[in-house]
Specification:
- With about 110 residues, the protein is mostly helical.
- It has four helices and no strands.
- Helix 1 packs antiparallel against helix 3.
- The N and C termini lie far apart (about 45 Å).
């Protein structure tokens, strides 16, 4: 069943969508900046505690926050863009064309 929306309703829906996408990108930027800062602090703290820079840099404990916060980022991306972010109709069409072309060249 198709809904007939007025221009104003379409505008409001589009505006909400853009705001949601904007919020996601701001969250992603915050994630990157804050985690770089925290990781640097953790590495400096490990070096001050006697680890070499290489040991501190390769210590996975310094990167746990990337993983856990990153899981939240993935869920927010899925909520914002949906599964179509990865496999939408365009993706399917491109893959079909690619496989059709591959089978034509192999004959």
């Amino acid at each position: 069943m198709e809904r007939n929306l007025t221009q104003e309703q379409k505008y409001i829906l589009a505006k909400k969508r853009v705001e949601k996408i904007s919020k996601f990108y701001k969250h992603l930027a915050t994630y990157i900046i804050v985690n770089i800062f925290l990781t640097a602090i953790f590495i400096v703290g490990d070096v001050n505690d006697g680890d070499t820079f290489k040991e501190a840099f390769l210590d996975y404990h310094n990167y746990k926050i990337w993983l856990f916060w990153g899981i939240g980022i993935v869920f927010q991306a899925l909520n914002t863009f949906g599964l179509s972010l990865f496999m939408n109709k365009d993706w399917e069409e491109k893959k079909i064309k690619k496989y059709m072309e591959e089978t034509n060249y192999k004959r």
